[in-house]
Amino acid sequence: MTVTTRFAPSPTWYVHIWSLRTVLYNYLFAKKNNWKFLVRIEDTDRTRLVEGSVENMLWVLASVWLIPDEWPNNPWELGPYYQSERLDIYKKYIQDLINKDKAYYCFCSPERLTKLREEQQALKLPTKYDRKCRFLTKEEIQAKLDAWEPHTVRLKVPENTIIEFEDLVKWKIKVPSKDIDDQVLLKTDGFPTYHLANVVDDHLMWITHVIRWDEWTPSTPKHVIMYDAFGWEQPVFAHIPLLLWTDKKKLSKRTGDVAVENYLEAGYLTEALINYIALLGWNPKTTEEFFSMDELIERFDLKQVHKAWAVFDIERLKFFNAHYLKTTDTEQLYKKLTTYLTKYNPELLEKIQKFSDDFNKKILNELKTKIKKFDEYEEQTTYLYWDAKIPEKDLLINEKMKIKDIDTVKKALEMAIDITSNNPDFDSIDEIKNIFIEKIKEAEMKNGQVLWPTRVALSWEQYSIWALELIYILWNKKSTERLSKVLNLL
């Protein structure tokens, strides 16, 4: 089957989590069917444009590996990709609808329409156009056009019919035409509305499947009417469910952080974002949770998308991210970390690049099982890159570890210094462990009695990487210096 899908955002916002899922499902479906996914920009609503939003959207899509086959950054045969550059195309097709008596001129002023809407609301009626201009004679229409009266063009919805279409997620949907408004297709400024431009572009760009979120379901009957009016075959529709927060509130800018770039800035890996987002509303029919992009493409099926809403849970996203941090090869993960710091924390990158890559990779290798996202890296490593405050004596004492006095601390630090100062740098943590265990046993002490004060003296922190891992990262000379500094002060 030849499949072409698309993502058609308005440049009125940045890429949100629900948009990312829409893009992902379009991408997966197109790639599974070995064909094309494209992006076009629906910028006909000139009053709501947000400067920089297009650039941000294109950058975010590239950052999460959802690179279209055709889009403004990679034009090919189906452009232009900005609707504002396609106005002549829309004028041609709007005239075609008028000539076929499938659309009509509307000369109603904004004031009249506002008053009509208020009256309908007061009577608790559906707010719809009353079709006043639908029944103007040709002579009346021509006279108004000759007088240059401001006007729009509206869709002439068929009367007393049932509009129906198949939906891959919701199955068959039927809507009485009496419930459908005579939608504006062309505004007074000459720009098309979403509805006209959407249908014309999808047809001319060979879109076979329209995959979009559920809020567009009520608009789809209008689009079906236009496909019939033009005499075109309609695409297959699939309306995916809404996303909610864990408190069941709708995902929106008012209720939480929804911008994808904010999650990239927080240090979530693309693998985790894509994997988790794919599962929000799609059931792969397996107990497995972790999928590569290739695996998602192979398994994805629109028929397995749920009809009900899905819950976006930050803690679940952290779980996925922790998994990918832990399982990614350290060499590859270090490249991801430096890429992340280059964009979001260049000051930290400059500081850590004063140390060897080998040193930084050893740190990351230990931390990748302890952090959940990259923005935690700086806080977790300050004691490794810079000398910090000397710990309070109370921090060195730990009754749970059987450390009740400073003499026990001194004995532990003396043992650790003896090991680090009289041995070459260790090749592995296991090598360090074997020596420490042997010395602790000889001294008839508990492991915690030695390793707790050693760790605190090396990190100056209540919580840090464990003692033996710290010695392996810092090397013996630096470890000896830190241990001796604390012992001398005691």
Produce the secondary structure layout.
Blueprint: E1 4-7, H1 17-32, E2 36-39, H2 53-63, H3 87-99, E3 103-106, H4 110-122, H5 138-146, E4 152-155, E5 162-167, E6 171-176, E7 184-186, H6 194-204, E8 209-213, H7 220-230, E9 236-240, E10 243-244, H8 260-265, H9 270-278, H10 293-299, E11 310-311, H11 314-327, H12 330-344, H13 346-352, H14 357-367, H15 377-385, H16 393-396, H17 406-421, H18 429-442, H19 447-459, H20 467-489
Parallel strand pairs: 1-2, 8-9, 10-11
Antiparallel strand pairs: 3-4, 4-7, 5-6
Helix pairs in contact: 1-10, 6-7, 9-11, 12-13, 12-14, 14-20, 17-19, 17-20, 19-20
If you had to describe this structure to a student in words, what would you say it looks like?
There is one protein chain. The chain has a three-stranded antiparallel beta sheet. It has a two-stranded parallel sheet with strand order 1-2. Strands 5-6 form a two-stranded antiparallel ribbon. The model has no long low-confidence stretch (mean pLDDT 93). The chain contains 20 helices and eleven strands. It has 490 residues and is mainly alpha-helical.
